[in-house]
Amino acid sequence: MTLNTIDLAIFAIYVLGLIAIAYYVSREKVGHDKNTDDYFLASNSLPWWAIGASLIAANISAEQIIGMSGSGYVVGLAIASYEWMSAITLIIVGKYFLPIFMKRKIYTMPQFLQERFDGRVKTTMAIFWLAVYVFVNLTAVLWLGALAINTITGLDLTICMILLAVLSLAYSLYGGLKAVAFTDIIQVVLLIAGGLFLSYMSLSLIGDGQGLLAGFDRLTSELPEKFDMILSADSPHYVNLPGLSVLLGGLWVMNLSYWGFNQYIIQRTLAAKDLAEAQKGIAFAAFLKLLMPVIVVLPGIAAVLLLPELSKPDQAYPELMNLMPTGLKGLIFAALVAAILSSLASMTNSVATIFTMDLYKPIKSDKSQSHYVLVGRVVSVIALIIALLTAKPLLGDFDQAFQYIQEFTGFFTPGIVVLFLLGMFWKRTTANAALAATIGSAVFSVAAKILIPEVPFMDRVGYVFLSCFALAVVVTLMQKESKNAHPNAVQLDDVNFTTQKSFNISALLNTLILIAFYTVWW
């Protein structure tokens, strides 16, 4: 089924408005050329509402909407733990991690690693992150986004991917992070409005004219197994969401890595005008995360009744869109594309930031600011071209791409979390220990996958994290220089961890809401 004229008109208005606003907010004063601070950190001018919206827009991409709806179709509400536990993780990041990063006035996560450890750690992690962003994240967003557009419009998958890449560059390439962050406000409004409309209409269809609540009541009564948050060991999906591990185990490691040490996420907070503003943005994003399962998981569960014969779970969300009336379909389609474009723009900007500031600038340190901005723009284009060429070969055969992404990144996240946590909070941690944790994470993960394949991957992440932690401690203690604090250690006494009253209230409310959710749907 294709979009009709009204739907296409709504989408066209969105695209033109997005590009116009992006160029408007990216303007510079007469006589001022963009420098690296302008392009990569939005001139350190982002307000809290832009930070919060941008965090969600960067996070909720095709891999989240399409992938988690597909997982909702197969697994049910249990997959929402990724979203709800992220809310608490964001609070922890805002309280304990951001004060350290903001005090150091860094551009990138590799830069922090260089300042804390040495160039070996920085270069290793910079190359790793570039590879993951291009070959895992960008490819996933392009492929799943193209799958959705193909299902709705009938356009060829390759053409869909090219259009997404071109549109993301059209509004983000000139302005950099400022263009991305401020247009993310529009993206999030569209995303939430479109997602809520889709959930509402899906439940109304299930309710057979008796309203939203009747539809939800039928959904919970006919599919009670889809509303278990904590899966038992005999569940066929236990291997992906192993019971209490989502609350007490490896999911914490995954979330801390993603929200605390992930360049294209944390870069928004680094662009805040001060720490308090960044923390407000984090708290705002945490509240929005509580809403996300209604937008990305509930439609997938509803599709079990509305579309029981799907060939692939990842088709749940786009096929539901085809059931929507004219006009509303255009709005939801614009919301979906908004999420895709925002994530693409965020990732390419972060790839450009890491490459330019961590790999290129140290080698070519005598160049002008405008030269580094140009390099960043070129790298953004190259990254998208590579992702376009590799997306189908890498992801074309996976039914649930979201689970693939989690499984792949789970091989490396334990070591990343270890090197950052010890680097920030244990003064004796050495660079060799950081490298050992990084390499050990991949080695331990592969060994565990081969030797104990029956262990759920989330539990495996937890075991590998503990192994990497122990390895890093042992390597540190074996080095003579570790008897004293590392010369580049974080001086925690100089870091202000005190948070404002509004942040503390937000943290408490988030916690209480989560307790209520898990109590109702345990």
Protein model, in words:
The chain has 522 residues and is mainly alpha-helical. Helices cover 73% and strands 0% of the residues. The chain is built from 23 helices and no strands. Helix 3 (48-59) crosses helix 9 (177-206), helix 4 (62-74) packs across helix 7 (119-153) and helix 9 (177-206) packs parallel to helix 14. It is globular and about 70 Å long. The mean pLDDT is 86.
Question: Structural class, judged by helices and strands?
Answer: mainly alpha
Tell the overall outline. Answer: globular
Contiguous uncertain segments of 5+ residues:
none
The biggest sheet, with number of strands, parallel, antiparallel or mixed sense and barrel status, is: none
**Rg on CA atoms, Å:** 22 Å
